[in-house]
Design brief:
single chain; 2 domains; 9 helices; disordered C terminus; binds zinc ion
Length: about 200
């Protein structure tokens, strides 16, 4: 699966949990943790986006620091890949569950959100032909539940559906600060937002 599909799956999973349970919407930090979690298992692949942090921060950093970050990221991913192999230990679903339990136990919700993103990645990979070791350590081999090839039209279609779901459902769950910025923008630009969004915008 491509990085943007993993991100979409991670955010959509988080949204579904917020939408269908009593869980509070994630804060900005928790949202970043969720997104990073949805990319983190591919730290065992030298081609992954998580191994190129400079590329992720392309719009925010000059070329020099980006190259240094990419070099560091590449060194880490290559080393992890050499030791654990791609879709090895770092793709174990129990690792994701471990983050969630750890976060709940020590009341660090951002770790829970990271673990949730992590779990969505492992489950996403389960639906590719290579599969993922979802039952490890009970059963070490990768198991596949479908054959959605990376970069295929079916993956693009699923990615579009997920982004549509995110835009459709997620607007009202944006972190408070983001809602405040949007509210400020609405006031400046004289834009009327739908009532549901206005009602969820925190008081200023
Ligand atoms: Zn993966």
């Amino acid at each position: 699966m491509l990085a943007h599909t993993h991100i979409a799956l991670g955010i959509a999973t988080g949204l579904a949990i917020v939408h269908f349970t009593d869980t509070a919407a994630p804060s900005s930090v928790e949202l970043v943790a969720l997104i990073l979690g949805s990319l983190a298992p591919d730290i065992d692949s030298s081609n992954s986006l998580i191994g190129k942090p400079g590329q992720m921060l392309e719009r925010f950093l000059p070329k020099g620091p980006r190259k240094i970050l990419d070099f560091c990221g590449g060194t880490i991913t290559k080393s992890v890949n050499r030791i654990f192999g791609h879709r090895g230990f770092f793709h174990w679903s129990v690792l994701a569950l471990g983050f969630i339990v750890f976060g709940l136990w020590f009341d660090r919700l951002w770790i829970c959100w990271f673990g949730l993103g992590y779990l969505s990645h492992v489950i996403g990979d389960f639906f590719t032909p290579q599969g993922s070791p979802v039952f490890a350590p009970l059963y070490w081999k990768c198991v596949s539940g479908a054959s959605i090839k990376t970069g295929s039209w079916s993956e693009s279609f699923i990615s579009i559906l997920l982004w549509v779901y995110i835009c459709w459902t997620g607007f009202g769950y944006l972190p408070g600060e983001t809602q405040r910025w949007l509210n400020r923008y609405r006031e400046i630009a004289h834009i009327e937002l739908p009532e549901t969004i206005q009602s969820e915008t925190p008081e200023q």
